[in-house]
Amino acid sequence: MNDATIKRLNEINRAFYRTSAESFDESRDRPWPGWDALLPYLKPPLTILDVGCGNGRFGAFLAHRLGTALVYYGIDSNATLLERARAAMSGLNARLELRDVFENPPDSGGYDLVALFGVLHHVPGSEQRREFMRALAQRVAPGGHLALAAWRFYDFARFRERIIPWPDDLKVEPGDYLLDWRRGVHALRYCHYVDDAEHSALIAATGLTEITTYRADGRTNDANRYSVLRRDPV
Protein backbone atom coordinates (compact mmCIF):
# COMPACT_ATOMS: atom_id res chain seq x y z
CA MET A 1 0.00 0.00 0.00
CA ASN A 2 1.43 3.39 -0.97
CA ASP A 3 2.03 6.25 1.43
CA ALA A 4 -0.76 8.42 0.00
CA THR A 5 -3.36 5.71 0.60
CA ILE A 6 -2.08 5.04 4.11
CA LYS A 7 -2.29 8.74 4.91
CA ARG A 8 -5.83 8.95 3.56
CA LEU A 9 -7.04 5.92 5.52
CA ASN A 10 -5.48 7.28 8.70
CA GLU A 11 -7.28 10.57 8.15
CA ILE A 12 -10.61 8.77 7.67
CA ASN A 13 -10.18 7.26 11.12
CA ARG A 14 -8.94 10.45 12.77
CA ALA A 15 -12.06 12.17 11.41
CA PHE A 16 -14.21 9.28 12.65
CA TYR A 17 -12.97 9.62 16.22
CA ARG A 18 -13.20 13.42 16.13
CA THR A 19 -16.84 13.11 15.09
CA SER A 20 -17.92 10.15 17.20
CA ALA A 21 -15.73 10.37 20.34
CA GLU A 22 -18.68 11.04 22.64
CA SER A 23 -20.89 8.25 21.32
CA PHE A 24 -17.91 5.89 21.02
CA ASP A 25 -17.03 6.51 24.66
CA GLU A 26 -20.62 5.73 25.68
CA SER A 27 -20.44 2.43 23.78
CA ARG A 28 -17.22 1.43 25.58
CA ASP A 29 -18.31 1.80 29.20
CA ARG A 30 -17.46 -1.65 30.56
CA PRO A 31 -14.61 -4.17 30.38
CA TRP A 32 -14.46 -6.77 27.63
CA PRO A 33 -15.15 -10.27 28.99
CA GLY A 34 -12.06 -11.54 27.17
CA TRP A 35 -9.80 -9.57 29.49
CA ASP A 36 -10.51 -11.93 32.37
CA ALA A 37 -8.54 -14.68 30.60
CA LEU A 38 -5.43 -12.47 30.73
CA LEU A 39 -5.31 -12.25 34.50
CA PRO A 40 -3.46 -15.55 35.18
CA TYR A 41 -0.50 -14.20 33.18
CA LEU A 42 -0.30 -10.91 35.09
CA LYS A 43 1.35 -10.68 38.49
CA PRO A 44 1.68 -7.25 40.15
CA PRO A 45 3.66 -5.10 40.32
CA LEU A 46 3.27 -4.46 36.60
CA THR A 47 4.38 -1.89 34.07
CA ILE A 48 1.80 -1.54 31.30
CA LEU A 49 1.83 0.05 27.86
CA ASP A 50 -1.73 0.43 26.56
CA VAL A 51 -1.52 1.25 22.84
CA GLY A 52 -4.63 3.05 21.64
CA CYS A 53 -5.92 3.25 25.19
CA GLY A 54 -9.08 5.20 24.31
CA ASN A 55 -11.04 6.03 27.44
CA GLY A 56 -8.73 4.04 29.73
CA ARG A 57 -11.14 1.25 30.56
CA PHE A 58 -8.49 -1.48 30.30
CA GLY A 59 -6.25 0.30 32.80
CA ALA A 60 -9.19 0.79 35.13
CA PHE A 61 -10.08 -2.89 34.75
CA LEU A 62 -6.55 -3.95 35.73
CA ALA A 63 -6.51 -1.64 38.73
CA HIS A 64 -9.86 -3.02 39.89
CA ARG A 65 -8.85 -6.66 39.47
CA LEU A 66 -5.16 -6.55 40.41
CA GLY A 67 -4.89 -3.61 42.78
CA THR A 68 -2.96 -0.39 42.36
CA ALA A 69 0.57 -1.83 42.15
CA LEU A 70 0.60 -0.81 38.49
CA VAL A 71 2.56 1.69 36.45
CA TYR A 72 0.38 2.51 33.46
CA TYR A 73 1.29 4.36 30.27
CA GLY A 74 -1.59 4.93 27.87
CA ILE A 75 -1.33 6.51 24.43
CA ASP A 76 -4.09 7.54 22.05
CA SER A 77 -4.61 9.99 19.21
CA ASN A 78 -7.96 11.37 20.39
CA ALA A 79 -7.96 14.13 23.03
CA THR A 80 -11.59 13.60 24.07
CA LEU A 81 -11.08 9.93 24.83
CA LEU A 82 -7.86 10.71 26.71
CA GLU A 83 -9.78 13.07 28.97
CA ARG A 84 -12.12 10.19 29.77
CA ALA A 85 -9.06 8.05 30.48
CA ARG A 86 -7.68 10.64 32.91
CA ALA A 87 -10.92 10.50 34.86
CA ALA A 88 -10.95 6.69 34.80
CA MET A 89 -7.32 6.49 36.01
CA SER A 90 -7.60 9.18 38.68
CA GLY A 91 -5.56 8.29 41.76
CA LEU A 92 -3.47 5.66 39.97
CA ASN A 93 0.15 5.76 38.83
CA ALA A 94 -0.76 6.60 35.26
CA ARG A 95 0.75 8.63 32.44
CA LEU A 96 -1.33 9.46 29.38
CA GLU A 97 -0.03 10.86 26.12
CA LEU A 98 -1.75 12.30 23.06
CA ARG A 99 0.09 10.53 20.24
CA ASP A 100 -0.67 8.98 16.85
CA VAL A 101 0.30 5.37 17.52
CA PHE A 102 0.53 4.50 13.82
CA GLU A 103 2.66 7.39 12.60
CA ASN A 104 4.63 7.60 15.83
CA PRO A 105 4.60 4.21 17.60
CA PRO A 106 6.25 3.91 21.03
CA ASP A 107 9.99 3.59 20.56
CA SER A 108 11.48 3.30 24.04
CA GLY A 109 11.01 1.47 27.31
CA GLY A 110 10.29 -2.12 28.29
CA TYR A 111 6.97 -3.22 29.81
CA ASP A 112 5.61 -6.27 31.58
CA LEU A 113 2.49 -5.98 29.46
CA VAL A 114 1.92 -4.34 26.09
CA ALA A 115 -1.82 -4.24 25.32
CA LEU A 116 -3.33 -3.77 21.87
CA PHE A 117 -7.13 -3.91 21.95
CA GLY A 118 -9.49 -2.43 19.37
CA VAL A 119 -6.60 -1.04 17.34
CA LEU A 120 -5.16 -3.56 14.89
CA HIS A 121 -8.10 -3.30 12.48
CA HIS A 122 -7.30 0.38 12.01
CA VAL A 123 -3.70 -0.13 10.83
CA PRO A 124 -3.61 0.35 7.04
CA GLY A 125 -1.45 -1.85 4.84
CA SER A 126 -0.31 -5.46 5.30
CA GLU A 127 3.38 -4.62 5.61
CA GLN A 128 2.60 -1.71 7.92
CA ARG A 129 0.68 -4.06 10.23
CA ARG A 130 3.67 -6.41 10.40
CA GLU A 131 6.04 -3.52 11.12
CA PHE A 132 3.67 -2.20 13.75
CA MET A 133 3.61 -5.55 15.52
CA ARG A 134 7.41 -5.81 15.34
CA ALA A 135 7.72 -2.36 16.90
CA LEU A 136 5.38 -3.24 19.76
CA ALA A 137 7.18 -6.53 20.39
CA GLN A 138 10.34 -4.54 21.01
CA ARG A 139 8.64 -2.83 23.93
CA VAL A 140 8.01 -6.11 25.77
CA ALA A 141 10.47 -6.70 28.62
CA PRO A 142 12.05 -10.17 29.06
CA GLY A 143 9.45 -12.43 30.64
CA GLY A 144 6.71 -9.96 29.71
CA HIS A 145 3.66 -10.31 27.49
CA LEU A 146 2.04 -8.73 24.47
CA ALA A 147 -1.74 -9.19 24.46
CA LEU A 148 -3.74 -8.34 21.34
CA ALA A 149 -7.28 -8.70 20.09
CA ALA A 150 -8.25 -8.67 16.42
CA TRP A 151 -11.85 -7.68 15.72
CA ARG A 152 -13.48 -10.33 13.52
CA PHE A 153 -16.28 -8.08 12.29
CA TYR A 154 -16.62 -9.67 8.84
CA ASP A 155 -17.75 -12.94 10.44
CA PHE A 156 -21.07 -11.30 11.38
CA ALA A 157 -23.92 -10.27 9.08
CA ARG A 158 -24.79 -7.26 11.24
CA PHE A 159 -21.38 -5.73 10.52
CA ARG A 160 -21.23 -6.78 6.86
CA GLU A 161 -24.48 -4.83 6.42
CA ARG A 162 -22.61 -1.67 7.44
CA ILE A 163 -20.02 -1.88 4.67
CA ILE A 164 -19.97 1.18 2.39
CA PRO A 165 -18.40 1.09 -1.11
CA TRP A 166 -14.97 2.67 -1.41
CA PRO A 167 -14.54 5.81 -3.54
CA ASP A 168 -13.31 4.91 -7.02
CA ASP A 169 -10.04 6.79 -6.53
CA LEU A 170 -9.02 4.89 -3.38
CA LYS A 171 -7.20 1.61 -4.03
CA VAL A 172 -7.18 -0.53 -0.92
CA GLU A 173 -6.02 -4.05 -0.12
CA PRO A 174 -8.07 -7.25 0.29
CA GLY A 175 -9.82 -7.27 3.66
CA ASP A 176 -10.09 -3.46 3.83
CA TYR A 177 -13.58 -2.09 4.43
CA LEU A 178 -15.38 1.18 5.05
CA LEU A 179 -18.00 0.81 7.80
CA ASP A 180 -20.68 3.22 8.88
CA TRP A 181 -21.29 4.13 12.52
CA ARG A 182 -24.86 3.96 13.77
CA ARG A 183 -24.76 5.42 17.24
CA GLY A 184 -25.54 9.07 17.91
CA VAL A 185 -23.85 10.55 14.84
CA HIS A 186 -23.16 9.49 11.28
CA ALA A 187 -19.51 8.67 10.63
CA LEU A 188 -17.37 6.30 8.57
CA ARG A 189 -14.35 4.32 9.69
CA TYR A 190 -11.71 2.27 7.94
CA CYS A 191 -11.46 -1.29 9.26
CA HIS A 192 -9.30 -4.19 8.13
CA TYR A 193 -10.42 -7.77 8.65
CA VAL A 194 -7.56 -9.83 10.09
CA ASP A 195 -8.30 -13.44 9.15
CA ASP A 196 -6.67 -16.51 10.70
CA ALA A 197 -3.81 -16.61 8.18
CA GLU A 198 -2.89 -12.98 8.69
CA HIS A 199 -3.30 -13.30 12.45
CA SER A 200 -0.69 -16.08 12.43
CA ALA A 201 1.61 -14.07 10.18
CA LEU A 202 1.43 -11.06 12.49
CA ILE A 203 2.31 -13.21 15.48
CA ALA A 204 5.25 -14.71 13.60
CA ALA A 205 6.47 -11.21 12.74
CA THR A 206 6.86 -10.34 16.43
CA GLY A 207 9.37 -13.09 17.16
CA LEU A 208 7.55 -13.73 20.43
CA THR A 209 6.06 -17.01 21.63
CA GLU A 210 2.28 -17.41 21.50
CA ILE A 211 1.12 -19.04 24.73
CA THR A 212 -2.64 -18.92 24.17
CA THR A 213 -5.28 -17.80 21.69
CA TYR A 214 -9.05 -17.66 22.12
CA ARG A 215 -12.24 -15.93 20.96
CA ALA A 216 -14.35 -13.74 23.23
CA ASP A 217 -16.56 -10.64 23.48
CA GLY A 218 -19.65 -9.40 21.72
CA ARG A 219 -23.15 -10.81 21.67
CA THR A 220 -21.96 -14.35 20.86
CA ASN A 221 -18.71 -14.18 22.84
CA ASP A 222 -16.53 -14.56 19.75
CA ALA A 223 -16.24 -11.08 18.22
CA ASN A 224 -12.51 -10.78 18.96
CA ARG A 225 -9.66 -13.22 18.48
CA TYR A 226 -7.12 -12.79 21.25
CA SER A 227 -3.51 -13.89 21.38
CA VAL A 228 -1.17 -13.66 24.34
CA LEU A 229 2.52 -13.63 23.42
CA ARG A 230 5.56 -13.86 25.70
CA ARG A 231 9.12 -12.67 25.39
CA ASP A 232 11.22 -15.44 26.90
CA PRO A 233 13.37 -14.42 29.86
CA VAL A 234 17.02 -13.77 29.08
Features:
globular; alpha/beta; 10 strands; Rossmann fold; seven-stranded mixed β-sheet; 234 residues
Task: Tell me what you see in this structure.
With 234 residues, this protein is α/β, with parallel strands linked by helices. It contains six helices and ten strands, in the order H-E-H-E-H-E-E-H-E-H-E-E-E-H-E-E. The protein has one domain (3-229): Vaccinia Virus protein VP39 (Rossmann fold), CATH 3.40.50.150. The longest helix has 25 residues, at 3-27. The chain is globular and about 50 Å long. The model has no long low-confidence stretch (mean pLDDT 91).
Could you outline the blueprint of secondary structure elements for this entry?
Blueprint: H1 3-27, E1 46-51, H2 57-66, E2 70-76, H3 79-88, E3 94-98, E4 111-117, H4 126-137, E5 140-151, H5 157-160, E6 163-164, E7 176-183, E8 185-192, H6 196-206, E9 209-216, E10 224-230
Parallel strand pairs: 1-2, 1-4, 2-3, 4-5
Antiparallel strand pairs: 5-10, 6-7, 7-8, 9-10
Helix pairs in contact: 4-6
